[in-house]
Amino acid sequence: MNQLQEAIQTRPHDWPQILILEDEPSVAQGLEMVLTEEGYAVVRAETGQSALDTFHRREFDVLVADLRLPDIDGMEVIRRVKRDQPDTGVIVITGYSTVASAIEAMKLGAYDYLPKPFTEEEIKSAVKGALSEKRECAVISEPEAGVAEEVPTPPEQLPEDKVRIAKAIGELRLDFAGHKDELIQMLQRVQNRLGYLPELALQEIARMTQTPPASVYGIATFYEQFRQHPAGKHLVRVCRGTACHVKGAERILNEIKTRFQLSPGQTTRNRKFTLETVACFGSCAIAPVLVVDETVKGRMNPSKTRMALEKLTANDDEQPSAGAPNKEKP
Ligand code: FES
Predict the structure, then answer these.
(1) Using CA atoms in the order 273, 279, 282, 283, what is the torsion angle rounded to 10 degrees?
(2) Which atom of ligand 1 is nearest to the CA of 243?
(3) Which one of 19, 50, 215, 307 has the fewest beta carbons within 10 angstroms of its own beta carbon?
(4) Which residues are near ligand 1 (CB < 6 Å)?
């Protein structure tokens, strides 16, 4: 019996199950020790194929995956795992971090991206976060059958964007010395100017502050105030709190996904709508709740949602965005 089979058969299955995909024995051993001490049941795989085979035999709560492997590309392993077991929390560990691979990992649904070397605290906190995200997702039901998972597509980049991005980067060079402690302020400046953080600006901030690009990207994705894509003209927020979930929030999200090819966190290619989800608007009595710009719409259903968004599409006179939300009569 090899080490992997032995591990699978001897670990108790009521502990959180972690699969470490890492071909470097010293790193794998260190990770196994740290995570086992935390009370996790850990299984190791040294190749992409052995990790996929193990996933075919059983489920894991979290996959900690290196990207450079002797056989399959680690990103491909993550893609297949997320396709077959989308609830698996994924943490990327890599000695070759780039902004592009961090973005790709996040698009595939990775929970965290840790450039090597990382500290014990960083990996412990990443695993903890991935497990708690998995638990939160488990509260929300699966999408209705028959609704295909959409491949996210970034909104169209308009020609004037390039000019605005170049100006924002020029401002950074003029107004900041490039100290590491200016990093957040620099991100905020770009976000204020452009409404989001384009990759070019992230790269420039990484260069100016001499910070690894993946760390800059990690900060940009950690804080909710930052966006990675331009926002749409209308912000559509769907409540996924318990009351709204029970009353059909997922059907509303599925309608938006099917009708407008829009998933949470995305913007339509024509930049008309950005979709977000929230935990609770405090209007549970009129669940399920949808907020379009600043207007709260209660007791919604898929067809009312579709009509509300189609009306906005037809009539571009949007509501003013300032001030407190106005409650519509349900
Ligand atoms: S749960 Fe949706 S408003 Fe409270």
Answers:
(1) 60
(2) 1
(3) 307
(4) 239, 241-244, 280-281, 283-284, 287, 289
CB 45 within 8 A of CB 54: yes
Digit-coded pLDDT (tens) for 29-55: 899 989 988 888 889 999 999 999 888
| Ligand 1 pocket mutation pick from 238, 276, 280 by most atoms within 8 angstroms of CB | 280
Question: What CATH code is assigned to 3-139?
Answer: 3.40.50.2300
User: CATH number for the 159-222 domain, one of 1.20.1090, 1.10.1200, 1.10.3470, 1.10.10?
Assistant: 1.10.10
pTM score, two decimals?
0.44
Residue whose Cα lies nearest atom 1 of ligand 1: it is 241
Q: How far is the CA of 227 from the centre of ligand 1 (A)?
A: 24
221: exposed, middle or buried (C-beta count within 10 Å: 0-12, 13-18, 19+)?
middle
Model confidence pLDDT, tens digit, residues 173-232 = 999 999 989 999 999 999 888 888 988 899 899 899 988 887 888 888 777 678 877 888
